[in-house]
Amino acid sequence: MLVMDYLSVIKKCVERYGDTVVLPFKWPTYFLNDPEDIRHILVTNHRNYVKARGLKLGRRFLGEGLLTSEAPKHTERRKLLQPSFHKEKIASLGRLMANTATSQVENRWQAGTVADISTELARVTLAVVTKALFSRDLSDETTNVQAALTICQHYIEHRVRFGWGLPEHWPTPMNRRYRNAIAVFHELIRTLILTRRNSGQTSSDLLSVLLEARDERGEPLTDNEIRDELVTMLLAGHETTANALSWAFFLLATNRNAEEQFHAEIDHVFGKGPIDVGKATGLRYTDAVFAESLRLYPPVWRIGRRAINADTLPGGLHLPPNAEIAMHLFVAHRNPKYFPDPERFLPERFLNGGQHTRPRFSYFPFGGGPRICIGEDFARLEAAIILGVIGQRFRLTLEPGQRIKADPLITLKPKYGIRMRIHGR
Length: 425
Ligand code: HEM
Known about the structure:
Structural class: alpha+beta
Order of helices and strands: EHEEHEHHHHEHHHHHHHEEEEHHEEEE
Largest sheet: 5 strands, mixed
Helix content: 40-55%
Strand order of the largest sheet: 2-3-9-6-4
Strand content: 5-15%
Distance between the termini: 27 Å
Bound molecules: protoporphyrin IX containing FE
Radius of gyration: 21 Å
């Protein structure tokens, strides 16, 4: 059974009160659901908006990396990091992604067994992202990284949702757990930086870009600045994709017809041999499966902003200065105006140009405007490859009698995992 609570409450609010819901908190909070209002915030008048207070609560964990920083620092950093995510650079990482994913799956996945696929997929995506961006496979750290990440996400979400908390330096059990989890991360990253520095190696990966960067005064980034970017990439780059893929396999297991079409396409495009990355562009149905999974379970399920000055939205709503804005992708993606029968998993919605018949911001799993996900092309290629590597070899079915719950932390995680039986094909 699929259980949702906090998410259902938000959804019901929007169903009851319409595209704009105003909550009279200490800082008035606006839930926006209309595509044109969303475009206004993220693109047209983005200069009037900064990241929401909620994300800033995670500063001790995420520091001032690309995800949390603001202009002018953000603009500068984005310029520095963007070339590492250009289409050609990502395409050149395809072979490495395919080899990494294949060896992970061949070493750990066995027909006839039952596994929590969300943990297994986190291991695969952690291996891929750390190999591709830092030239190191950190998948042996999956258990530590996942445990630490979950604690940090719970902590931040708790403070966002309840709007308060005892000061972070007080020795409460929750604060202590949070601090210990951050220490695990920081130690991992410190070792990564030290090992590279001591090796004297040069590389063209993201870690080298950060180590070799110089600011306008010719100064290198400090170790803390490098650490913040690496922590950000670790969180943003492995957890999101792992969740997206977990939900994709969950949804495929609930729709036999879609699952058969998916396997037929994987067999047709990749055959049974090693993944030929150049052929990934030929995956139409598989891309639609991924797109539809991102619609129903967007890994970033909420995007928040805060207004600097007063503003008026295209729909006519007046926002005061300091207004908090929450755009719930989880709800916006289920708007029956644009997605009839919205709860149904129907990859066909994304075939034959279906997406171009809907407003741009009726569906925005990677955000939009200058803060759009820097890793979108990375994630799409990685997803196609991992779906291919697993789809070539296995069919996954849901184990009966389990509770599957979407847990809205910073990312939308399956709270109790997803237990699936692995069948050989
Ligand atoms: C399915 C996978 C992914 C999804 C759904 C996703 C979604 C998003 C979204 C919605 C944002 C915008 C947040 C906002 O506007 O407040 C974002 C930003 C970001 N993402 Fe992703 N992401 C994914 C994968 C990745 C990967 C693979 C990486 C890196 C390897 C990455 C790195 C980042 C970074 C660094 C930012 C901040 C960009 C900025 O503010 O300039 N993401 N992501």
